[in-house]
Design brief:
- The chain has about 375 residues and is mainly alpha-helical.
- The chain has one domain (about 1-365).
- Helices cover about 70% and strands about 0% of the residues.
- It has 18 helices and no strands.
- It has helices at about 1-15, 25-35, 40-50, 50-70, 75, 85-105, 110-135, 135-145, 175-185, 190-200, 205-215, 220-240, 245-250, 255-265, 275-280, 295-325, 330-345, 350-365.
- Helix 1 runs antiparallel to helix 6 (about 85-105).
- The longest helix is centred in the C-terminal third of the chain and has 29 residues, at about 295-325.
- The chain starts with a helix and ends in a 7-residue tail after the last helix.
Amino acid sequence: MKVLSVFVFFLTFYKIPFFYPYFYISIIFGLIGLSLFYFKTYRSKFFSSIGLLPIFFLAFLILYSLIIDLFSGGLVLDLKNSFSVRGLTLILISALPAYFIVAYCLKWNYRSAIDVIALAFWVQAAFWILSYLFPNLKFVFNAFMGGGDEAVNLMPHNFETRGFGISSEINYTTPFMTVLTCFLLIQRKSLSFVSTLTQLINSNLVVISVAFGFIFSKFRLFYKFIFLAIVLSFIYAFGEVFFPRLIAEFLSGDSRTIRALMNNHIIILNNDYFGHVFGGFVYLFRGDLGVSSDIGWVHIYNYGGVFYTLLYLSFLLFLSFSAFGFRFFSLVWFSAGLVLNTKGLLFGPNSYYFVTFMFIFLNYRNGYQRSNS
């Protein structure tokens, strides 16, 4: 069962589709997880572990989204990006595969789950090394996931500088979450080091997850400083070769990305009281209005206003509490979600929600804990 668990975790965490961009293999595992609901014990434990408030806020988000999508035509114009579909697939592609792994494959065993996650990350590290040494493999990985030759990581300026490994979210959630999970949850020293160096090449956002790890992980302070010294020395010595995007960010005063987001991506189209409170029902990710944004909060605010934004924040917060209890660490995890939703639109199936649900189910049976290994 552990081999199956690694397989399911890898395909779900890295959100890997099969020869078509939106046919995620984890849909199958989600349906298997849903089939467990036939048994009352599995059904009751699923809902009991998540808790009333996260379920309430997610249900409200989906219902409110469905009403907006039906009246605005969002389901017809852009089905895969509609907020109601995002909410439903969050359950199908993130929550249910997590439940299948924890409840069925691992029988709620916390230590086995930590081993499974670590093995999956080592597998990704192997894919990363292969695609870094042989960049043409990126064409193979991209074709397997149903992508075209115009994919952003296959462009000349990115071909040998980023996008190594295999994942449909290799430029967004998975580099950040790989490093964050290594530091805060599974806490394997060598894996944390390897993941940091490899994923920093894929995404500058990893700097923030390293900062989270340095401040909030349970590693000894001595190890943290040794780790930081080695990483910084490596970047200083080989930065122009291995980390050209990160070096460019630092040379800009660590503000190039922030400046671009502030200047080009803060777009508010709600123009009256109703729009600011309940939203203008605008889908910025379609670009139909000649504008678009990478910032998730901008998408949410233009879509559902203050009301929808508060609903989403409440869902994110209480989901973190369900995973890690009413402790300071839950606020750290919640903050990581806030960061990711600033880089992109987090509401939907992805590695952040998948890991969160895994630890909701694990900690429900094992008590709120973090690995000490």
